[in-house]
């Protein structure tokens, strides 16, 4: 009987990260299906790890930069000595991508050295395919690793950062050189098609990020009182937490018991804390910092709806998790979000950047009957479990790798 086990090297930048649990779920789903996965990251994540699953992933991951400069230079010299012409082509590719990149040629020469080391690890692990997440430096290393004789590769583009600088990231080259490229939404596929020649459009596949359905048993009933909202994400401009505070200022004038829990952390925390104080919202806002998945689920169960006021996104995992937990979603009408959230059926969608529209949607939810909210929550749960089961999506990815 033919062995269908895949040997995959996951090439990542910073791993694990609290906000990248979808990568961990994908890897573990592939392993549960019998495939072998080697985790290879350039560096450890910079955010503190509070989830035991992330700590386990960190222990299972090999870190390229920890090997040291001499190990990388040694791998590069060995690769050159074994196949100088092939090395020259890879060097030319790195140089070309570096010339158009914001990070420059020197960084891409470092990527080339990382790729040489990655090729050595892939050979030792007998990996026949490499997969990267995000179209940034991890995809560059995977591409250069292949150019140096390493395994064929694919990479998943999430957005929105990749869509901000497609030429600087050489997305066209990365797609052209790949076996296939993954977009997480149809919207994402349309954006990648802008930077890939029509001859490569068939390479762009849609594989959704997935939720582990075993972590979302039958949801608890929506809470009484409130209304209560939760927002989950890094404290950065694109997530729109400041807009959520403006919306809360409007909402509490008619809903004095309204409460918002902000889960996450990041560079904008001091500004967010100052804004909460200046707006007089201290009794209406709770900041938790980063918490583990069990705490996230508990906070979702204590809320009526997830609030996602983002200015730019791909399709956030937290929307899928909220819907799987039987909670409503109030989000901005951008990118791939409308592919999952259906206005009037599973939640509300508002124009990005419009605090008044966001406040109106929150007020509308607060005034909707509990029976209607429960029906909408159940519809959202059914929709996400049908479209975003991690086992199904991991099997899709494996099929593309094997094909």
TrEMBL record:
One of its GO terms (molecular function) is glycosyltransferase activity. It holds the Pfam family Glycos_transf_1. Transmembrane segments: none annotated. It comes from the Bacteria. Residues 219-382 form the Glycosyl transferase family domain. Keywords: Transferase. This is Glycosyltransferase involved in cell wall biosynthesis. It comes from Sulfitobacter undariae.
């Amino acid at each position: 009987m033919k062995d269908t086990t895949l040997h995959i090297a996951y090439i990542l930048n910073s791993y694990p990260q609290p906000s990248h649990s979808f990568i961990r779920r994908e890897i573990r789903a592939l392993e549960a299906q019998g495939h072998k996965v080697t985790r290879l990251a350039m560096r450890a994540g910079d955010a503190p790890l509070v989830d035991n699953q992330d700590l386990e992933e960190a222990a299972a991951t090999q870190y390229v930069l920890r090997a040291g400069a001499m190990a990388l230079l040694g791998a590069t010299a060995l690769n050159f000595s074994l196949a100088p012409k092939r090395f020259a082509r890879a060097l030319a590719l790195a140089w070309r991508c570096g010339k158009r990149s914001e990070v420059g040629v020197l960084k891409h020469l470092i990527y080339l050295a990382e790729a040489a080391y990655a090729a050595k690890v892939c050979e030792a692990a007998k990996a026949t395919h490499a997969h990267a997440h995000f179209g940034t430096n991890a995809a560059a290393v995977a591409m250069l690793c292949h150019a140096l004789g390493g395994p064929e590769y694919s990479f998943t583009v999430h957005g929105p950062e990749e869509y901000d600088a497609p030429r600087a990231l050489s997305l066209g080259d990365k797609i052209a050189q790949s076996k296939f490229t993954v977009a997480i939404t149809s919207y994402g596929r349309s954006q990648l098609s802008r930077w890939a020649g029509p001859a490569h459009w068939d390479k762009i596949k849609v594989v959704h990020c997935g939720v582990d359905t075993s972590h979302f048993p039958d949801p608890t009933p929506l809470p009484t009182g409130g209304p209560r909202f939760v927002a989950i994400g890094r404290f950065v401009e694109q997530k729109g937490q400041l807009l959520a505070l403006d919306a809360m200022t409007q909402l509490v004038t008619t809903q004095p018991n309204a409460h918002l829990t902000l889960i996450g952390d990041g560079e904008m925390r001091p500004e967010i804390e100052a804004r909460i104080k200046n707006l007089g919202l201290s009794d209406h806002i709770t900041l938790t910092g980063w918490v583990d998945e069990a705490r996230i689920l508990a906070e979702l169960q204590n809320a009526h709806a997830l609030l996602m006021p983002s200015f730019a996104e791909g399709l956030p995992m937290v929307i899928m998790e909220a819907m799987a937990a039987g909670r409503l979603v109030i989000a901005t009408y951008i990118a791939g979000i409308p592919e999952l959230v259906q206005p009037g059926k599973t939640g509300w969608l508002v124009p990005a950047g419009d605090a008044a529209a966001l406040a109106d949607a929150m007020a509308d939810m607060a005034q909707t009957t509990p029976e209607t909210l429960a029906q909408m929550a159940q519809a959202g749960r059914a929709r996400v479990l049908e479209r975003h089961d991690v086992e199904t999506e991991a099997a899709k990815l494996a099929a593309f790798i094997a094909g």
